[in-house]
Amino acid sequence: MARLKTGVLISGKGTNLQALLDAAADESFPAEIVNVIANKAGAPGLERARKAGVKAQFIDHTLFQEREDFEKKLDETLRENGVQFVALAGFMRILTPWFVDKWKDRLINIHPSLLPAFKGVHTHERALESGVRVHGATVHYVRPEMDEGPIIGQAAVPVLAGDTKETLADRVLEAEHKLYPACLKLVAENKARVTAGLVRMDKDCAPDPHTVLSNPCLR
Ligand code: GRF
């Protein structure tokens, strides 16, 4: 079966990108990473892509007066590279409805909280302040509203006594690195489709009540 040609948009470190590249290095993985674009010069993720033999490009958003002009360039570049599906991985730029609609149901994001809790930034700090016992990460289809959209998968981690925002962030990030490739696999296999605003899983992918990571479809 043809692998889903995936583009990844990043702004920084790219550890989630690395997890996707590592998963896709196995030819039996149903998606391949064909293009990585960063909006920040020198984003370490660009080097990760190049090392994996993936076309990596920097598009400076500050050169464009309007958000949509930057996004038109993004869209054009992704299409030129044959991208069919886009994964945001630490892409720190809000996308307009124009781009989001253009890539509707072909655009996913990873967010460091169990949505709909803690949308926006500083999620680990806010989780600690709020006293939640469980925190985590979410992979979801992107909609124009920030951190909204049909949820594909979530990974839960405990909040432990003595946690700082850094220790909690590390624990969540480790879970993200398993969750993101697992979710990309599900969508690439067409096992997690959007129907009536929610992701419907195939019956054999019914989520485990405790953590979706113990769902065989997400391993
Ligand atoms: C991750 O925590 C992700 O959830 C958020 O941005 C961070 C990106 O980290 N969207 P990295 O660049 O993948 O290391």
For this entry, give a set of tags.
Rossmann fold; 219 residues; globular; binds 5-O-phosphono-beta-D-ribofuranosylamine; 9 strands; alpha/beta; 6 helices; 2 domains; 7-stranded mixed beta sheet
How would the blueprint of this fold be written?
Elements: E1 4-10, H1 15-24, E2 31-38, H2 44-51, E3 55-58, H3 67-80, E4 85-88, H4 97-102, E5 107-111, H5 123-130, E6 134-141, E7 151-158, H6 165-188, E8 192-195, E9 198-201
Parallel strand pairs: 1-2, 1-4, 2-3, 4-5
Antiparallel strand pairs: 5-6, 6-7, 8-9
Helix pairs in contact: 1-6
This protein binds 5-O-phosphono-beta-D-ribofuranosylamine (GRF).
Helix content: 25-40%
Rg over alpha carbons: 17 Å
What's the SSE pattern?
A: EHEHEHEHEHEEHEE
Please state roughly what percent of the residues sit in beta strands, choosing from under 5%, 5-15%, 15-25%, 25-35%, 35-45% or over 45%: 15-25%
User: Which blocks of ≥5 consecutive residues have pLDDT under 50?
Assistant: none
The span between the termini is 20 Å
Write the CATH architecture name of the largest domain: 3-Layer(aba) Sandwich
Number of helices: 6
Structural class: alpha/beta
The CATH topology of the largest domain turns out to be Rossmann fold
Compute the number of strand runs. Answer: 9
Molecules bound to protein:
5-O-phosphono-beta-D-ribofuranosylamine
Report on the biggest sheet.
7 strands, mixed
- Label the overall shape: globular
Strand line-up across the major sheet: 3-2-1-4-5-6-7
Mean pLDDT: 94
